[in-house]
Specification:
By secondary structure, this protein is α+β, with helices and mostly antiparallel strands. It folds into two domains: about 325 residues, BirA Bifunctional Protein, domain 2, CATH 3.30.930.10; about 80 residues, Anticodon-binding domain (Rossmann fold, 3-Layer(aba) Sandwich). It is built from 15 helices and 16 strands. The protein has an eight-stranded mixed sheet. The protein has a five-stranded mixed sheet with strand order 13-12-14-15-16, sandwiched between helices. Strand 9 and strand 10 form a beta hairpin. It starts with 15 loop residues before the first helix and ends in an 8-residue tail after the last strand.
């Protein structure tokens, strides 16, 4: 009987597998340019790792089972717990700051929406900085994320919305929110719910009808976010209304972060949005999300500060900030903009033989090219010369080296530029030299 992938899972055939590999290659290169080192962690962790750290929603979506020793374990549903576990293990010898990136497969048992970029197995690209208490780390991780997204073709397609949970908490306290977790949940879903549902959700947090109407009006005026000057005016109004000291400290962090991001040259894609609070309970101050600028404004990445998590895992007090970019929504974003790659880069050389008797020579040439650092291929099916050239074009090769043409000078091959069709002779001992 034929088999198919399980619901919520996908196969990636060529050239799609190659396109995804190319995206990961560009992301790695950009992260390394920003000074991040790659960390690789297991795909299975102790279930306790997630029970200690993750919010209720993530815990419900985690794939859990017992191993053959009867121990409760889980498929990795997010990478941050593993990053913190590794850091705690080496914290005493770590040279701060630690800047790590990871590219990890993750699994969440949620309702799949394949066309909308929601699958049960996906890849996350994480950037994390540990050991820096100030917003300099927040600015660095966001600037690195912008570099990564731009390098893979996302320039101009996304907006970074940021907030500080201390500001959100202060606003909640001004309106009498007795349950700040419920207040956060209501605010986080503001753009996804009706005014009536928003008011009902705020009521569960202890906010009255008048307060709900005022907050809905304030948040509606913000729209998709405020650039730096408008954000300053918005925050100033709330300070004047009586934000407490903790909230005013959050306001100062937002102002400082917006200033740093301006100096980093990415203020054109950064806005302040008071409805961004992030649902996970371990975030401590700054929070941010990347959204597509067009279409359904789907989320591309999310993250924030988790300054107490290392301590929660048994390590020393260590400030930390990080973000995660999901591959599925990223693919949707790039495809809609026509910027998804065709596959991995094409081959450099396809060695074509006039007739099968020259195949051993073609094999020798291919191996020589590969040892010289060039990608190369030759025909393995004894096809005609014209079919070999068509295959070279399909593989997006830069050139073809033709072996066995009678009109070629002895000891020479014919090199054909597959983009222009121009031909020239090339000496056999010079064929491995890059053009």
């Amino acid at each position: 009987m034929p088999f198919a992938p399980l619901r919520g899972f996908r196969d990636y055939l060529p050239p799609e597998g190659g396109a995804r590999s190319e995206i990961r290659r560009r992301m790695r290169a950009a992260a390394r340019r920003a000074g991040f080192a790659e960390l690789e962690t297991p795909c299975v962790e102790s279930l306790e790792l997630y029970q200690v750290k993750s919010g209720e929603e993530i815990a419900k979506q985690t794939w859990t089972f017992s191993d053959k020793g009867g121990r409760p374990v889980a498929l990795v549903s997010e990478t941050t717990p593993s990053v913190v576990r590794v850091f705690v293990d080496r914290a005493k010898s770590a040279s701060l700051p630690v800047k790590w990136f990871t590219i990890s497969k993750t699994w969440r048992y949620e309702e799949p929406q394949m066309g909308a970029g929601r699958t049960r197995e996906f890849t996350q690209f994480n950037l994390d900085i540990l050991g820096v208490p100030g917003v300099e780390a927040d600015a660095e991780v966001l600037a690195a994320a912008a570099l990564v997204l731009d390098e893979i073709g996302g320039a101009g397609l996304y907006t970074i919305r940021l907030n500080d949970r201390a500001v959100a908490e202060g606003i909640g306290r001004l309106y009498g929110a007795a349950d700040l977790d419920r207040f956060f949940q209501a605010v986080d879903r503001f753009h996804k719910t009706s005014p009536a549902d928003f008011a009902s959700n705020l009521a569960l947090a202890g906010v009255g009808p008048q307060g709900a109407r005022e907050l809905a009006h304030q948040f509606s005026e913000v729209g998709a976010g405020l650039p730096r000057e408008a954000a300053e005016a918005f925050l100033h109004r709330w300070v004047d209304r009586g934000l407490d000291l903790a909230a005013r400290t959050g306001v100062d962090r937002v102002r400082a972060l917006l200033g740093l991001l301006d100096r980093a040259g990415i203020s054109d894609r950064v806005v302040f949005d008071p409805t961004v609070v992030r649902g996970l309970a371990y975030y401590t101050s700054t929070v941010f999300e990347g959204y597509a600028r067009s279409g359904e404004a789907r989320s591309v990445f999310g993250g924030g500060r988790y300054d107490h998590l290392v301590e929660l895992f048994g390590g020393p007090p260590t400030p930390a900030v990080g973000l995660a970019i999901g591959d599925q929504t990223l693919e949707v974003l790039l495809r809609e903009a026509g910027r998804w790659p065709d596959g991995e880069p094409g081959l450099d050389t396809y060695v074509v033989v006039v007739e099968p008797s020259f195949t051993p020579e073609a094999v020798a040439i291919v191996q020589e090219l590969r040892r010289a650092g060039l990608s190369a291929e030759c025909d393995l099916l004894a096809r005609s010369m014209s079919r070999q050239l068509r295959e070279a074009a399909r593989r997006r090769c830069r050139r073809a080296l033709i072996v066995g043409l009678k009109e070629a000078t002895p000891g020479a091959l014919v090199e054909r530029d597959l983009a222009t069709g121009a031909q020239r002779e090339i000496a056999r001992d010079a064929l491995a030299r890059p053009a």
